Structure formats: C-alpha cells, structure tokens
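Can't paste images in this forum, so I'm doing it all in text. The chain is below; anyone willing to post the predicted structure tokens underneath?
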Amino acid sequence: MKAVVYDKYAPNDDYKSILSVKEIPDPKPKSNEVVFRIKAAALNYNDIWGMRGQPVPVPLPHISGSDAAGEVIAIGEDVVNFKVGDRVVSHSNMSCRVCEACTDGREYDCQKRTIWGFQTGPTWGAFSEITHLPEVNVAKIPEGVSFDEAAAASMTLLTSWHMLVGRARIRPGQTVLIMGGGSGVGSFGIQIAKLYNCTVIATGSPDKLDKLKEFGADYAVDHRKPDWSKEVRQIAKPFGGIDISFDHIGQTHWNDQLTLLKYGGTLVTCGATTGYDAKTDLRHIFFKGTNILGSTQGTKAELEHGLYWMGKKKIKAIIDSVYNFENAAEAHTKMLTGKGLVGKILLKP
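Text version of the structure:
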C-alpha cells in the first residue's frame, strides 16, 4: 500500500524535505483489530509536532494522521461489533482500558494514553491507503455522514464535545466565547454551543468573521485587534458576562479571557498554539471563583454523541480543502500558516 512517510525530523518546518510517498506492506488484523481502507484522512496540529520531533519525539520511520474514515476490509477473530463493509471512523485516543481512570469512564486521563498517528509507530497512522485499529478505537459512521465529513470530525468534534459537554458542563441559555472559531475545533465549538441554545460570541481573523456567523455564531469579533476584549465585554454586558470561554489559542489571549468571565465562570482549554507561557492575574481566579479546566481528547461515547448529531444534520464538518498524498507537504504548510484556512484540511490517497 501507499503511505506518506518520513524517517527524520524537520525542526525548521521544511516538510517537503522529509515527506515522501512510499510502498509499505498491507497490515493484517490482530485478533481484536479492524482493518479498513482509508477514504479520507484529516490533518491536525500534532502532525506538525511529530515532524518537528517536539515536544514529543515520535517513532521513526513515521506515518502521521490521527483522523481516518473508510470501509472495513478485514476483522480479527475476536471482533464482535464490526463486519466487512462497515463504514467507520477512527477514535484516536488509545488507552490501557484497565486502569482506574479507564474503568471509571475517563480514558482521557489514562497515564498510558497515547494518540494514534502521533505517538504510535513506526509507520502506523492515517496517511496511508489501509490501516488497522483495535475495535474499541473505531466508531461506525451514521447514515448521511460522508467519509470526508467523518474524517474531518474525528478528533476535532471529539475535542470540542468533551471541552464543552464533558468538562465545562454547558447548559442551555449560557453565553459562550469561542476563541479561534475558524479552526476545526472552533467551528465545532460554535455549533455545539448553538445546539445547546447558547448565545455564542466567536473570534477570528478579519477575513473569517463572516464565516463564523455562517457557522452559527451570534457575534463575530476580530481577535487580532488590540482591544478585542473590550468589544467582547460590550457584547456580553447585557448577559452579565461570559459563562464559558473555549480556548485553544493560549498565551496571547489568555488573561484577557479571564477578565471577561462572570463570577463562577469557566475557562476550558485544549491547547496553546500561540505559546504556553501565559500571564495569569490570579485575582480573576480566586476572587471570582473562576474554574480553569484542562481538556484533552475525550471518550469514544462522546465521539459517537457528536456523530449522532452530524447524522441529524444539526452539526456539520467544515472542510477547507482536499489534498492528495503527493501534496502532503503543501497541505501541512497551509495548516501551519493558517492563511485563509477555515475548517479542516483533508488528505486522500
């Protein structure tokens, strides 16, 4: 089968110098595994971390990709819930399934947790024609959801659902601030908040503001303006402030978000694309009773909940562009720069 492979790192982000399309052996299923032919895969920022070799060195040679959707072509002898021909999508959170956290339904807190296509390998990820996963790491795609849509949703929908529903415990009628609403997680965050009938203020770069409203945001704010938080505060004033701030931007906008929260409000974060060394005014935490929640991945059940609503056409995947394997370097460069990027980038054999 064909796969996009690299056998050295590119700390300077010169992806073209390390990525190549190679022939590697087709996988065969272990007793508990499902093998499926990939119809579409999606890019995530951890693909860039992998190629940089930082902050976690990944196994080499490496196949990246944590989101894949396709059709089952083989199953192991112990697989009971899938059959050849099923349409499936990956659940990339791989945990031990036997520790206290896992058996308590918190697989995302498993100390042995790894992310498929990022920390796994060598040569085990979504950017290949065929892949294999344990049955517990595969979900069925509902009717009415395409392979492209499922691949675009796999990690980002799960992340957004877990942030808002699993961690922040979103409730109908709240006022929710979605930072970076034009990203994959941001676009799903907007839609999930609207599913809960919340008032949504979304931020983005100036060229994306109209798109944010198309996704369902009630208000769209340019977060590149120095006084962006003043605009958000003015919008949120009739609602008493922000109940939940949904963050993956990090350092540059962190403290401003804290100032916008109501007493007892919640900031939930899943990343730090602008940096991790954020200034924090502790008065906004202890005096206002602010909840700061970290969030990584989620459960397979949460992914299935999100996919259910996709099948009901209440949530949709936003796809920016589609590339083939031969243009993988260009696709990753687009994700890195973010120029004109709205939604997910897909990669296909």
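The chain has a mean pLDDT of 96. The chain has two domains: 2-140+318-348, 159-294.
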